[in-house]
Write the C-alpha cells for this entry.
Amino acid sequence: MRYRVVTTYLMYLLLVPSLAQQLTARVVGGTAEAGRLEIFYNGAWNTVCDRDFGQEEALVACRMLGFNSTTAVAVGSVKYGAGSGPILFSDLRCVGNETSLAQCKYSGHYTHNCYHSQDVGVMCNITQEFRARVVGGTAEAGRLEIFYDGTWNTVCYHGFGEEEALVACRMLGFNSTTAVYVWSAKYGAGSGPILFSNLRCVGNETSLAQCQHLGLYIHNCEHSSDVGVMCNFTQEFRARVVGGTAEAGRLEIFHGGTWNTVCNFGFGQEEALVACRMLGFNSTTAVYVRSDKYGAGSGPILFQNLYCVGNETSLAQCQHWGLYIHNCDHSYDVGVMCNFTQEFRARVVGGTAEAGRLEIFHDGTWNTVCDDGFGQEEALVACRMLGFDSTTAVAVGSDKYGAGSGPILFQNLYCVGNETSLAQCQHSGLYIHSCDHSYDVGVMCNFM
C-alpha cells in the first residue's frame, strides 16, 4: 500500500510539469492585461470558477499571461461577462510563486459545481487608483461608493465592520478615531456595480484595496445590502420608553435626528440593564419584553444582535452588527422594564388545587407559559410558587387542561430547580416567544 502511494506521488510530480506546459492562458472581453480568464487545455478554451480564486491565484494567472505582476486582482463575471464551454478549474489554492495554475492545488480537471456566471477574470499590473465618496448624507456620512475603472461602485456590508469603516473614512480624507458602518436603510440603496464584499481590514490601511477581499465584483449581494459609513462619529445616543410608564415601555433610541426602535434578537438582561442606565435608572433589576407588551413602533430599526457586558453606559458601546443592519420588522421591537420589583404569582386552572394549566399573574393580568423547554425542574419551581414544596412534579401539555388566553409570559425557561420563582430562571424575556396557546403548559404537583 505504501509503495502504491509513493509511486502515485512520483507520477504526479512527473506529470505536473508537462501539464503546466500544456496549459496556455488568455484574457477575453477586456484589454491585453485584463479580462475573463480562459485556459487552453485538451484542445479547447476553458473558463475558471471564481470560488477561492484570490490574489495569489490572480498573480499566477498573470504570470501565465506573460506579466510578472506584483499587483493583480480577481474579478467576477459582472466585469467581463460569462464565458461558455467547459469549466476547467475550481477551488484553486496557490502559494503565489507558481508559474502555472496547474502547479496549484485544485479539485481536479472539470470538477466543480459552478456556473458560467461565476467565471473569474483577472486584472494584471493594477495601477488604477481607488477613490471614495459618501452619498445621501453629509460630507462625513453617507452610502459608501468607490470610484474604480471609470465608474462609481457600491460596497456590500457582508463582513464590513469598524476596522473597514475606519479605512473607508481614511480614504475619504478623515483620520477618524471613531467610525461606524450603517446599512442601506439609512442612506438608501445605490446602483451600478458592487465592487467589494467580505472585506477584512486590520484598520491601519490607507485604502480598502489593501484589505483582504473576495476579489473585485465577486459577491452574492444586492443593493439592499449597500454599506454606509459615518466618520468622526460623535453623535449622542439618547433613550426613551414609549407606551408604558416612566420606567417601562418600548425602547427607542434617538440617533441621526430621529427616534429608532431596537430589535429583540440577542437582547437580554445585560442589554436591558444598559438601556435602563441610558434612561437614567441605575437599575439592579431590569427585564426586556417584546412588542406584544407595549406595541410595535415605526421608523428605522437601529440595533440588532447587541452584545453588552452589562456595565456600559450606552448601548452604542456594546458590540452589534452595525447601525440599521438587521433582518427584523417592528413586530420584534423590544421593550424594557427598569427598577423591576413586581411580584409574580402563580395559579393552576382547569384541574384541581394541585394540578392544572399554569398561569402567572404579572403586570395586572394572568398570563400563560409556553411548554417549550419546560421540564421537571421548571415544574418543581412552578409548584413551589403555588405553595407546594413538591419533590415530585411533572409538566403536561395543553391537551390535558386546555388552552388559555391572553398574553404568553415565558418561553424557553431554564431553571436549576431550587428557585422560588420562575422569574429567577433563565428565559427568553417577558412576552418574547414563538408560541400560541396550543402550547400552554400545565403542571401536576405532589405527583404520585
The longest strand covers residues 34-41. Residues 1-17 have pLDDT under 50 and may be disordered.
